From TrEMBL:
SUPFAM superfamilies: NAD(P)-binding Rossmann-fold domains. GO terms for molecular function: glucose 1-dehydrogenase [NAD(P)+] activity. Its EC number is 1.1.1.47. InterPro entries: NAD(P)-bd_dom_sf, Sc_DH/Rdtase_CS, SDR_fam. It comes from Halosimplex aquaticum. Keywords: Oxidoreductase. It comes from the Archaea. CDD domains: SDR_c. This is Glucose 1-dehydrogenase. The keyword Oxidoreductase applies. Belongs to the short-chain dehydrogenases/reductases (SDR) family. The keyword DNA repair does not apply.
Amino acid sequence: MTQFDGDTAIVTGASTGIGESTAKRFAEDGASVVVADVNVDGGEGTVADIEDAGGAATFVETDVSDPDDVAAMVETAVDTYGGLDVAFNNAGIEGESRPTADQSIENWDRVVGVDLRGVFLCLRAEIPAMLEDGGGAIVNTSSVAGQVGFPQISPYVASKFGVIGLTKNAALEYSGEDIRVNAVCPGVIDTPMVRRSTSGDGDSVVDRAVAATPMGRLGHPDEVADAVVWLCSEDASYVTGETLTVDGGFTS
Ligand code: NAI
């Protein structure tokens, strides 16, 4: 018997990085997992890895900024596995690096559309399914960039601050109905997103991040997955509206 036996979990952005690790952790702990992402090959890879390890998972091609896709994602969870208990709203993009006045409206709309609107659309679709199922637990991915500013990426920072606000509001609204809503704030984690990034002047984000992190290394996606799984577990039964920072001391 493992802690999520019989439960259904949705993980967005589960084709790579933090989402992939967390989807696998939920499956190891007994959940049936809906793997939702725009990246089809990566998502099918996550499902194959889960099935090879003896777990249950289904891939749904989902753009979290599209309300129809998000509705279909939740429908798949309910139709395939009989309900919804856990959701990790994690899909995100960083967008282009430029000072605020040089940011294009297109980049603003694209980043806010995925990173903030996407989390809102997921909550809006997931909460009714959880209410039907007697409650649940949700974690949204914010960032240390949801706690302090980071030059060059204002659409991302604004979205990640917004995710914390959305998290607190949903927690307040549904705590009486057994739905807990929390956020996780990763520091710099070794994922494809970070490996792709350069700072505005072209320097490696990885080198700068390691230098700025008291623990002197990047985080591993599994270290964020462990925090997310804990927040969704019975061990966190009195924790809601909280933001859990996993950053190797970066914001200390
Ligand atoms: P990643 O790039 O490895 O994973 C992001 C996943 O989201 C990808 O599989 C991508 O295909 C998917 N995705 C992108 N746009 C999507 C959309 N419109 N609909 C559905 N899926 C979409 O990056 P990583 O690092 O695993 O990021 C996961 C989350 O963690 C993001 O929200 C990111 O902002 C956040 N984060 C990451 C940090 C890091 O250092 N890696 C630090 C703080 C936060």
